[in-house]
Amino acid sequence: MKKQSVKLLTLSGLFLALGLLLPFLTGQIPNIGKMMLPMHIPVLLAGFVCGWPYGLVVGLICPLLRSVTFGAPSMTNAVPMAFELAAYGFATGLLYKLFPKKNIFIYTALIISMLFGRIVWAAASYGFNQIIGSSFTWEMFVAGAFVNAIPGIILQIVLIPVLVMALKKAGYIGDAR
Q: Which of 61, 60, 46, 59 minimizes the C-alpha distance to 9?
C-alpha cells in the first residue's frame, strides 16, 4: 500500500510539473497558444492515472502555483481556474473508477468531466467576480468556456483518450484502481 501511495504521489508531482511547464510551449504558438488549454491536459490525466483525490489536488494547486511562480495566469483568472481544474481532476478520476473499463467510457468520462469543470468554472468566476466587485456575464461564460476554448477542447478530446488507452495498455493505469 505504501509503495502505491509513493507511486501516485510521484506521478501527481509529474503531472503538476507538466501543468506548470506546458503553457510555456503552447505560449510560443501565436494566436492560439492560450486557447490550447495546456494546464488542463496534465490535470485530466492525473485524474485518470492517479484517481480523483490526486487529480483534485493537482488541479487545485496547478493554476495557483503557476500564478504565484510565473505571474500567469493572473490571480483573478487563477482562482476560478483552480476550482475548474480541481473539478476536472476529481471528475475524471471518479468517473473512470465508476464506469466500465471499456475504451468508450474514457471518452464518456472525459466529456462529462469537461462539461462539469466548465460549470464549476462559471460558478467560481461568478462568485469570485462578485467578491472583487466585477461582473461575470453569460457572454463571458460562453466565450471563455466554449468559443475561445475550441482548439483546446478538440485537442483534449483527441489526445487524452489516446494517452489514457496507451497508459492503460502499458500497465500504468490499473483497472482495479
A: 46
* Buried-state track 32-43, b at ≥16 Cβ within 10 A, e below 16: eebbbbbbbbbb
d(CA 160, CA 103) in angstroms, rounded, equals 12
* Distance between CA atoms of residues 43 and 54, nearest Å: 9
Over residues 118-169, the pLDDT tens digits come to 999 999 998 998 898 888 887 887 877 787 888 899 999 999 999 999 999 9
Q: Are 20 and 136 in contact (CB under 8 A)?
A: no
Asked if residue 176 has pLDDT above 50, the reply is no
Question: Contact 39/19 with Cβ under 8 angstroms?
Answer: yes
